[in-house]
Amino acid sequence: MKRSEVNAVINEMKDFLETHRFMLPEWAYWPPERWKGAYERCFEIVDNKLGWDITDFGSGNFDRTGLSLFTIRNGNWDKKDKMYCEKIMVAGEEQVTPMHYHWNKTEDIINRGGGNLVMELHYATPDDRLSNDQVTVSIDGVLTTVEAGKPLILRPGQSICLRSHLYHRFYGEKGSGMVLIGEVSLVNDDSNDNKFYEPVGRFPEIVEDVRPVHLLVNDYPDYL
After folding, report:
1. Which helix or strand (DSSP H or E) is residue 194 part of?
2. 131: helix, coil or strand?
3. If residue 116 lies in a helix (H) or strand (E), which one and from where to where?
4. What is the sign of the dihedral through the CA atoms of 147, 190, 25 and 33?
5. Ramachandran sector of residue 49 (left: φ over 0; alpha: ψ -120 to 50; beta: rest)
6. What element of type H or E holds 137?
7. Average pLDDT over residues 32-41
8. How far is residue 123's CA from residue 222's CA, in Å, rounded to a whole number?
9. Neighbour tally for 130: CB within 10 Å
């Protein structure tokens, strides 16, 4: 992705969050130069990859396959300082997050507002294929059984609990608008805990055509 594209996505997400009155920490808005020499005070942010995370999953087409994320809080499996994570995310209409599961993480995905969120679910087989068995999940504490791969609609206010080894992909429903998505989960580790059904690039390579408006989680080492 070009840095100019990343900047545009971040600015669009900031506007969308403001519309829904979802407030981010103050450091979310720091310019790049504010991070210089900040590691001693901000090591939790840096080490646990809190902050902006814009990805096209290596697709080269963010609008079709991509997701905008901001990790608000996160722990560390090694330090065991916090064993939880919270994210806020934005998905556009028919903008797909590819099919994947997590080896360890259980997460609640919450439709915080905007349009409808579409989920497609499969249990993982022992050889990591997609099972065709019916899937039973908890939606706001109510057990619900759905056909494997059949679109499941989460309307604003609804949430779903996704346990480890449950394949899922999601996207905004066509015609309903952008979706504000919350995540509450065990510790998040994007480097080691994601199993994508088809190979993807979790973090994009950035073409530096302009200056960053805000740093991404993978930018910290270059600026601190």
Report:
1. strand 194-196
2. coil
3. none
4. negative
5. left
6. strand 135-139
7. 95
8. 39
9. 16
pLDDT digits (tens, 9 = 90+) for 150-195: 999 999 999 999 999 999 999 999 999 999 999 999 999 998 999 9
Phi–psi pair at 61, nearest 5 degrees: -140, 85
Cα angle 185, 191, 192; round to 5: 75
Dihedral, 23, 10, 94, 61 alpha carbons, nearest 10: -160
Q: Tokens 């805000």 label which residue?
A: 214
The model scores a pTM over 0.85: yes
Q: Are 83 and 185 in contact (CB under 8 A)?
A: no
Edge-first strand order for the sheet with 51-55 is 51-55, 67-74, 85-91, 179-185, 107-114, 159-162, 135-139, 142-146
pLDDT at position 183 is 98
Give SS3 for 193: coil
Rounded Cα–Cα distance for residues 136 and 52 (Å) = 32
